[in-house]
Amino acid sequence: MTPDTNPDSTLSAFFADQTPPRRDLAFEAQVAAGIARRRVVATIAALLPWTIAASVLLWALGPLMGPVVDGLSETLAPAAAILTLTALTIGGSVMAGRRLSPTG
Q1: pLDDT at 2
Q2: DSSP letter string, 30-73
Q3: How far is CA 87 from CA 71, 73, 77, 95, 101, in A?
């Protein structure tokens, strides 16, 4: 080893040629969008048979369940209205409390 060469400068020169390229954020975003699109299509394709089966089952059971639903709807309509109004009141109160809170 000659006295003018420094081992650190030799290593730095060697690794300078092998530095990774800078990140291309636009390319990474396109790749991520492509992966997300494929996952959405795969999820929809996986749920499609279940959706068809449930639709056929509900279509077949519709005439059998019609009288039961009609009878229950008259009984449960007031309770459903009360629960809906209660949920709207609570939701409105929480939203107003957050909006009017001084800690904002």
Answers
A1: 54
A2: HHHHHHHHHHHHHHHHHHHHHHHHHHHHHHHHHHHHHHHHHHHH
A3: 25, 20, 15, 12, 21
> Residue 26 CA to chain centroid, in angstroms?
22
Residues shown for the chain: 104
The angle subtended at Cα 80 by Cα 74 and Cα 84, nearest 5°, is 155
What is the pLDDT averaged over residues 29-53? 95
pLDDT band of 68, cuts 50, 70, 90: confident
DSSP 3-state helix, strand, coil percentages of the chain (rounded to 5)? 85, 0, 15
* Least confident stretch, 14-28, 49-63, 80-94: 14-28
The CA-based diameter of the chain, rounded to the nearest angstrom, is 99
How many whole angstroms separate alpha carbon 52 and alpha carbon 41? 17
